[in-house]
Amino acid sequence: MDFPIIFNEYKKSEKKKMKINILKNNFFYRKLINDWPGISCTSGICVEKNNINFFFKETNPFIWKDLAIDIQLSIYTKLKYNIYYLKKSLTYKSNNIKNLDKRYAGFFLKKFWFRRKEQHDFNLSIREKKIFFNGFDYYITKVIVLFIKYFYKIF
Q: Which of 2, 93, 107, 128 satisfies CB 3.0 to 4.6 Å to 41 for a cystine?
């Protein structure tokens, strides 16, 4: 993955390069919160053809309706291979109001929590070795999704 330059389509301007959250590389963060890789954007991902073929054979990316292919590839390659971050900018990430992420951004959106739960479910589905503790984020997300489902049934 590269660190793309963010282009704001509304202002027609370039922002500084996107940064990967260094906190996510911390051992305690990975064990206590979640071990998902930081992702840049779909255009910044380069994967060998053999690895893509394995990805489609070992997973079914189409059953995860709220998960974009970039996070699926990132999680998959994080677990199966070692992700390499190229510290150069080779691509641009377009930032506009129609970006897919805008529909899921925000702790107060129902879609945010359902998508987050799908990320956890996808992560657990492709792990070769099951782990005892999945991180606080997993359990918090599960409780919030259950609450949302229950809350929406009442009203």
A: 93
